[in-house]
Amino acid sequence: MPVSPPAPPILSVANVSKTYEGGFQALKAIDLEIARGEIFALLGPNGAGKTTLISIICGIVNLSSGKVTVDGHDIGRDFRLARSKIGLVPQELTTDAFESVWDTVSFSRGLFGKKKDPAHVEKVLRDLSLWEKRDNKIMTLSGGMKRRVLIAKALSHEPELLFLDEPTAGVDVALRREMWEVVRKLREAGVTIILTTHYIEEAEMMADRIGVISRGELILVEEKAELMRKLGHKELTLQLMEPLERMPAGFTEFDLALSPDGRSLTYSYDTNAERTGIASLMRRLAEEGIRLRDLSTKQSTLEEIFVNLVEERV
Amino acid sequence: MNYTAVAAIYRFEMARTFRTIMQSIISPVISTSLYFVVFGAAIGSRIQEVDGVSYGAFIVPGLIMLSLLQQSLTNAAFGIYFPKFTGTIYEILSAPISPIEIVLGYVGAAATKSIALGLIILVTASLFVDLHIEHPVWMLLFLVLTAVTFAMFGFIIGIWADGFEKLQIVPLLIVTPLAFLGGSFYSIKMLPPFWQEVSLVNPVVYLISGFRWAFYGSSDVSIAVSLGMTLVFLAATLAAVTYIFRTGWRLKS
Ligand SMILES: Nc1ncnc2c1ncn2[C@@H]1O[C@H](COP(=O)(O)OP(=O)(O)O)[C@@H](O)[C@H]1O
Ligand SMILES: [Mg+2]
């Protein structure tokens, strides 16, 4: 049976570096490929270079070296083809003031060379709960509503690759939920999404793959599940029958911590280690006559993984 | 060519104009009328005919040029400065449009507005003096060329400016004085020979002279030189804009 070649990536970033005018190097030799249809979360602390990377791909910032292609089209040479596939929702709330919602969204569609399509614009506005506000001037809208307008503008020209730069920063819970819903719908429609976020649970919930960027370096790109598995530390919490006054001697080989009230012990272990050490810990506890009331385990969250990763680097 | 995008920018800019349509029209009509009252009636009654034209009629081309230069420049400058200032320029930069298309949209709209204003001033002027245009086609050609050239100039200033002061300083400190000294209200032939020579380095002299020739068939410098110089200025602004987009100067970091 003939094997179909692997689908070319919708986005390919090869060896991209960026040094700003003042001499500050914001990106260091970034390599990244994004498959069509996936949701990719770019995580990193403030100033890591997330916005810079997105801005380069979208044509807002010049790259210093390297190569970027979108669906096979070079962003420099074939900028028309490359950019027409991209929708960008910027981090900052940069909107017009005096235009109506309808006009500004229609303007974006025109700017991307797409024929007028009121039905599509209507659908986008309805999906984002902006339909009632379509004739309002943008400056009369709340921050959350403006954020929706920016998303509507990006979706007006039916992008195949959508960038959401911190879409839920400073956004209330209801709107955040709604945005996740929008992302889910877009994914079902086959849109590739790259988002940056500070909310790690958001990445955990939405993304298929996660990249961690720190000080201009992409220090890790991994399937979310794989990442959780690989770096997943688990914690085993042991509830004790009788409280302990201090950590009993002879447990130094274990990463154990006694709670302040002495009623529970917490054991941290690596799920990938050849031996988790749980069996021998249990044996030792029994030998010492420490009896257990209950026990529970907890998988570390991405946030913890992330903090560990970045701290390791520093 | 992404004509849809050009049209989108053009319409966006024109909509901006129409939101303030009353002040866009009323203020030039009022200021033109004032110029006629002051220069035409009060001073003009004491001035002989210039080149066989009554003084009131003589200043009409200069008055139109004065407004045309200011309006083309400030409109185009604001048009591109504002999205830079608010940050909405991100959308223009990330859209699949070429520099030429961006310029066509912004400069086209700014020029359209100032041409319309020029024609409004022309109509207002005709209420005060007997107007007779000898070469209407040339008149329109100069009107369009000048509007486009100064809109390009304004576009460059809008990109260069990093504050509102800079945006205002060029029209105020450069263009208006050049227009006044460029023969808006007098023929440079009235100046002493030395100042006539000095005037010839003022680009606005050529614009006004050519424009006035289209009205009355007489001019300070020959029509060919006027046209040639106008085209040179246009080419210079085109070269500057090409450079700006090639390097991303003041647009991209
Ligand atoms: N136009 C610029 N000129 C100089 N330095 C910049 C510019 N834009 C961003 N930087 C710097 O580059 C680094 C990365 O910024 P950015 O990409 O915005 O990070 P992030 O989006 O991850 O918070 C920061 O240190 C920032 O100060
Ligand atoms: Mg950012």
UniProtKB/TrEMBL annotation, chain A:
Keywords noted in UniProt: ATP-binding, Nucleotide-binding, Transport
MF terms (GO), sorted A to Z: ATP binding; ATP hydrolysis activity
Record's keyword annotation contains Cell cycle: no
One protein family per Pfam: ABC_tran
ABC transporter domain: residues covered: 11-240
Entry's family note: Belongs to the ABC transporter superfamily.
Protein name per Swiss-Prot or TrEMBL: ABC transporter ATP-binding protein
UniProtKB/TrEMBL annotation, chain B:
Location, primary (coarse class): membrane
Residues annotated as domain ABC transmembrane type-2: 19-248
GO MF term (any one): ABC-type transporter activity
Gene Ontology CC: ATP-binding cassette (ABC) transporter complex
Coiled-coil region: none
Keyword Membrane belongs to the record: yes
Compartments it resides in: Cell inner membrane; Membrane
Membrane topology summary: Multi-pass membrane protein
NCBIfam families membership: PRK15066.1
Family statement: Belongs to the ABC-2 integral membrane protein family.
Record protein name field: Transport permease protein
Organism: Jiella endophytica
